[in-house]
C-alpha cells in the first residue's frame, strides 16, 4: 500500500491537492516506515546488491552514515560518549571502515546477532538490518582483498611436535618422553582412519589422572626428560607461534635433551626402526675403512637432513656434517656412535627446531627458487594433521614443484587424513578445543559429593574426561557430520561413568578402563556440551557457576570469547547467609545484569550458562536447588530464540548450525595456522561455512577445506 501511494504521488500532478493531503496524512501516521522505504528506494538495487549498483566509497555517506546516526552514534561518539571504546563519529567513509577491519567485523557481528541497537533503543527494521549488513559485508570483502593474511611468526616446535618429529625421524616405537597433555592412552588398537569405523568397545586410560600400568616398559626413553609443558594460549592452542619463543635457557635445555635422546640405552634396534638402515654399517663395509664409512654417512645424511630440516639440504651444511663425522671416525669413534652424535646435532639444530614460512604474493604467485613455497606447504600440512615433520612422499612432491597442484594436493590431504598418524591430531586438538585440561584440577567437595570419589584418591573425572574424547574420535574415524558433536545418537560409557551420572559411583576400573558405545535415547545427555566432564570443570567445588559455563560456551562452541570483566567492577552486594540460602543462582546474579558496565556481556553469557543449570556441579541432573527452589533454565538465545528447558536449549543449538560451523571452522583454522585469526580470515570462514551448510559438514571435509584455503596456502601473502 505504501509503495502504491508513493508511486502514485510521483506520477500525479502536484495541483491535485486532494491526493497530496491524503499522502501527507498517511505519512504523518507512518513516518518511520516511510523513512525506511524511501531509503531503500533512493538507492534502488544498491540496497539489495551493493556490489552491482554502488561503490564502497559512496555507500557509507549515503546509506550507512544515516543509519549509524539514528541507531548507534548516540552511545558511540555523540557528545564524547564512547561506550566500549568505539567511536563511530570518526567514520566518514567506507575507506575508514576498511582501515579498521576488526571494528568492521565487530559491527557486522553485533548487528547480525541483534545485540545492537541495545534493548532500550528503537530496533532496526528487518529490511533495514538486512540492507545494512549487505553493505557492511561488501565493504568487508573489499577490505580483505586489499590486505594480506597475517603472517605466522617464526617459532619453535612445541614439545608435542618435537617428540613426534624425533619419533618419525628415527622411526621409533614409542615416545621419547612422557606427554601428560595427551589425555588418553589406548590399550586397544582401534585407530584406523582408513577403516571408517569405530569398534563397539575400547580399552583406554586417562593419562593425567590414571596410572601407568603397562609393566612391559616405562613411558618414554630412559634418562630422557621433557622440557616444561607448553602453555595453551587463552582461547587458543599450545601451538600458537607468539607463545613459542626460544630463550637461551630453553635452547640449553634442547641441547641437553638431544644429547639424552641419543645417549639413552633405549635407543637400540628393538625400539628403533631405522637402526639397521641408519645406525649400522652396511654389510661388506669394513669398520677400518674410514673413506667407505664417510661415503655411507654422506649418502644417509642427504636423505636424513632433508627430512629433519624439511627442505633440500644445503651442500655446504652437508659438507660440515660429513667433515665432523670424518673427524669423529678418525679419533676412534665407532660408526654407530658417530651417527648418534650426528643425530644429536641435528635435533638440536635451529633448522630442525624452528618453523617458519616464506611469503608468496597472492596476486603474482611468485615463489622463491627451488620450490621453497612447496616445502613450506608440506610442513604446514604435516604439522597441522600429523603434529610432525613431512614424510618423503610430501617432500618428493614439494621438490618436484607438484604439491601446489590442486589435484595433487587434494590427493595428498586425503592420504594424510587416512593415515594412522592422524591419531596425533586427535591427541592434541579436541582436548585443547574443549579445554578438558581444566578437569584435572576440578575437585568437588567430598562431603557434598561423596559419590565423585572412590577407592581413596580416585575421582570419577578420570572416566568423565574420556567420554567427549571418544566421541570426537568416533566422529573423525567414521567421517561424521560435526553436528554429531552437539547431539549424537550415541555415547561412550564405562561402568563407573554410568554410575556417576546416577550419583552412585561404587569404585571399579581405576587403571585400564573399558568403554562401550551405547545408544543415546535421553535428549538431555550426549555431545560435547551436556556431558559430566564439561559440567564438572565449569563448576566450583561447592556449586555450579553459570557465568563460567556461559563463557565456556561462547569461547568453545561459538569461538566468541567474552571480554574480560573490567577491573573496577564492584563486588555483588553483601547479604546474610540466611537470605542467600533462599535465593536461586539466577537471583544472586541479577545485579550483574542491571549494571551498565556488565549488562552487555551478561546478555550474551547468561542465557548460555543458566540454560545448563539443571546439570549440577558434577553433571548430575537436578530439578531443584538444595533450598527447594525450582531450577529455571529459561532464556532467550541470540536475541531471537526463546526456550524454557535444557532440551529446548539443545534443539536451538542445532538450529544455530551456521554459527556453530563457523565457530568450529575458526578453531580449526587457528590451530592449523598457529596464530590468532583476524578480520582478513573472515572471508575464508564464510566460504567454508557456506560449503558446510550445503552438506559438506563432515569433520574430515572441514579439515580438508582448511588445508585448501587461501590463508593456509599463502600465509602472510599480499
Can you give a write-up of this model?
This protein is mainly alpha-helical. The chain folds into five domains: 1-30, no CATH class; 43-146, no CATH class; 155-177 and 222-355, no CATH class; 180-219 and 434-544, no CATH class; 545-611 and 623-655, no CATH class. Helix content is 49%, strand content 5%. The protein has a four-stranded antiparallel β-sheet. Strands 1-4 form a two-stranded antiparallel ribbon. α12 crosses α13. It is globular, with a radius of gyration of 30 Å.
> What is the structural class?
mainly alpha
What is the mean predicted local confidence, pLDDT? 84
Biggest β-sheet description:
4 strands, antiparallel
Radius of gyration: 30 Å
**Level of helix content?**
40-55%
Q: Low-confidence stretches at least 5 residues in length (pLDDT < 50)? A: 1-57, 360-368
* Share in β-strands: under 5%
In brief:
By secondary structure, the protein is mostly helical. It contains 33 helices and ten strands.
Characteristic terms for this protein:
4-stranded antiparallel sheet, 10 strands, mainly alpha, 718 residues, 49% helix, globular, 5 domains, 33 helices
Describe the secondary-structure layout.
Elements (H helix, E strand, L loop, with lengths): L1 H10 L5 H13 L1 H12 L7 H4 L2 H16 L22 H6 L1 H13 L12 H21 L8 E2 L2 H12 L13 E3 L14 E6 L41 H16 L11 H5 L10 H20 L5 H16 L4 H13 L2 H4 E2 L16 H14 L6 H8 L6 H12 L5 H11 L19 E2 L3 E2 L1 H4 L1 H12 L12 E4 L1 H8 L10 E7 L12 H6 L8 H12 L19 H6 L2 H4 L1 H5 L1 H15 L24 E3 L3 E3 L2 H10 L1 H17 L8 H12 L5 H9 L2 H4 L5
Antiparallel strand pairs: 1-4, 2-3, 3-8, 5-6, 7-8, 9-10
Helix pairs in contact: 5-8, 7-8, 10-14, 12-13, 12-14, 13-14, 16-17, 24-28, 30-31, 30-32
Amino acid at each position: 500500500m505504501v509503495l502504491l501511494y508513493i508511486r502514485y504521488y510521483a506520477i500525479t500532478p502536484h495541483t491535485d491537492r486532494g491526493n497530496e493531503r491524503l499522502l501527507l496524512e498517511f505519512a504523518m501516521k507512518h513516518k518511520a516506515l516511510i523513512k525506511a522505504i524511501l531509503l531503500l528506494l533512493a538507492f534502488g538495487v544498491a540496497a539489495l546488491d551493493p556490489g552491482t549498483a554502488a561503490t564502497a566509497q559512496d555507500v557509507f555517506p549515503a546509506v550507512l552514515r544515516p543509519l549509524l546516526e539514528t541507531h548507534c552514534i548516540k552511545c558511540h561518539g555523540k557528545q564524547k560518549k564512547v561506550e566500549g571504546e568505539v567511536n563511530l563519529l570518526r567514520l566518514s567513509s567506507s575507506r575508514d571502515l576498511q582501515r579498521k577491519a576488526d571494528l568492521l567485523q565487530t559491527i557486522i557481528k553485533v548487528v547480525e546477532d541483534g545485540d545492537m541497537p541495545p534493548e532500550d533503543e528503537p530496533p532496526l527494521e528487518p529490511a533495514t538490518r538486512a540492507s545494512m549488513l549487505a553493505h557492511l559485508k561488501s565493504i568487508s570483502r573489499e577490505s580483505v582483498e586489499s590486505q594480506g593474511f597475517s603472517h605466522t611468526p617464526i617459532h619453535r616446535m612445541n614439545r608435542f611436535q618435537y617428540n613426534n618429529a624425533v619419533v618419525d625421524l628415527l622411526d621409533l616405537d614409542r615416545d621419547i618422553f612422557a606427554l601428560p597433555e595427551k589425555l588418553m592412552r589406548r590399550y586397544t588398537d582401534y585407530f584406523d582412519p582408513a577403516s571408517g569405523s569405530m569398534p563397539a568397545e575400547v580399552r583406554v586410560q586417562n593419562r593425567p589422572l590414571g596410572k601407568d600400568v603397562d609393566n612391559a616398559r616405562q613411558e618414554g626413553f630412559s634418562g630422557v626428560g621433557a622440557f616444561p609443558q607448553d602453555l595453551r594460549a587463552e582461547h587458543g592452542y599450545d601451538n600458537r607461534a607468539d607463545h613459542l619463543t626460544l630463550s637461551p635457557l630453553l635452547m640449553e635445555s634442547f641441547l641437553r635433551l638431544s644429547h639424552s635422546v641419543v645417549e639413552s640405552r633405549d635407543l637400540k634396534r628393538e625400539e628403533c626402526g631405522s637402526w639397521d638402515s641408519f645406525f649400522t654399517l652396511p654389510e661388506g663395509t669394513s669398520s677400518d675403512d674410514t673413506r667407505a664409512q664417510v661415503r655411507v654417512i654422506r649418502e644417509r645424511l642427504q636423505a636424513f637432513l632433508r627430512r629433519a630440516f624439511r627442505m633440500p639440504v644445503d651442500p655446504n651444511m652437508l659438507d660440515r656434517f660429513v667433515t665432523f663425522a670424518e673427524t669423529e671416525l678418525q679419533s676412534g669413534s665407532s660408526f654407530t656412535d658417530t651417527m648418534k652424535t650426528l643425530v644429536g646435532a641435528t635435533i638440536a639444530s635451529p633448522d630442525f627446531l624452528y618453523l617458519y614460512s616464506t611469503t608468496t604474493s597472492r596476486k603474482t604467485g611468485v615463489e622463491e627458487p627451488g620450490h621453497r613455497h612447496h616445502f613450506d606447504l608440506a610442513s604446514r600440512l604435516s604439522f597441522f594433521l600429523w603434529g610432525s615433520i613431512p614424510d618423503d612422499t610430501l617432500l618428493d612432491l614439494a621438490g618436484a614443484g607438484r604439491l601446489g597442484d590442486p589435484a595433487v594436493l587434494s590427493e595428498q590431504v586425503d592420504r594424510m587424513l587416512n593415515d594412522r598418524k592422524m591419531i596425533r591430531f586427535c591427541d592434541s586438538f579436541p582436548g585443547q578445543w574443549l579445554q578438558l585440561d581444566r578437569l584435572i584440577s576440578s575437585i568437588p567437595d567430598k562431603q557434598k559429593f561423596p559419590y565423585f570419589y572412590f577407592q581413596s584418591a580416585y575421582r570419577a573425572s578420570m572416566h568423565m574426561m574420556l567420554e567427549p574424547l571418544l566421541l570426537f574420535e568416533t566422529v573423525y574415524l567414521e567421517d561424521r557430520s560435526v553436528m554429531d558433536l552437539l547431539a549424537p545418537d550415541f555415547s561412550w560409557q564405562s561402568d563407573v561413568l554410568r554410575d556417576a551420572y546416577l550419583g552412585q559411583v561404587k569404585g571399579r576400573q581405576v587403571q585400564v578402563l573399558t568403554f562401550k558405545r551405547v545408544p543415546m535415547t535421553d535428549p538431555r545427555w550426549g555431545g560435547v556440551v551436556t556431558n559430566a566432564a564439561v559440567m564438572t570443570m565449569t563448576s566450583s567445588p561447592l556449586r555450579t557457576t553459570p557465568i563460567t559455563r556461559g563463557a565456556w560456551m561462547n569461547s568453545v562452541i561459538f569461538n566468541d570469547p567474552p571480554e574480560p570483566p573490567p577491573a573496577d567492577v564492584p563486588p555483588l552486594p553483601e547479604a546474610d547467609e540466611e537470605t542467600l540460602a533462599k535465593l536461586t543462582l539466577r537471583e544472586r546474579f541479577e545485579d550483574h545484569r542491571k549494571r551498565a558496565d556488565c549488562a552487555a556481556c551478561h546478555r550474551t553469557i547468561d542465557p548460555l550458562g543458566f540454560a545448563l543449570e539443571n546439570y549440577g556441579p558434577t553433571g548430575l541432573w537436578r530439578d531443584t536447588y538444595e533450598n527447594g527452589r525450582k531450577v529455571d533454565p529459561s532464556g532467550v538465545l541470540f536475541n531471537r530464540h526463546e526456550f524454557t528447558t535444557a532440551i529446548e536449549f539443545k534443539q536451538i543449538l542445532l538450529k544455530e548450525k551456521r554459527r556453530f560451523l563457523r565457530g568450529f571452522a575458526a578453531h580449526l583454522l587457528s590451530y592449523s595456522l598457529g596464530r590468532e585469526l583476524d578480520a582478513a580470515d573472515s572471508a575464508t570462514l564464510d566460504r567454508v561455512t557456506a560449503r558446510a551448510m550445503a552438506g559438506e559438514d563432515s569433520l574430515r571435509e572441514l579439515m580438508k577445506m582448511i588445508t585448501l584455503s587461501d590463508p593456509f596456502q599463502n600465509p602472510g601473502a599480499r
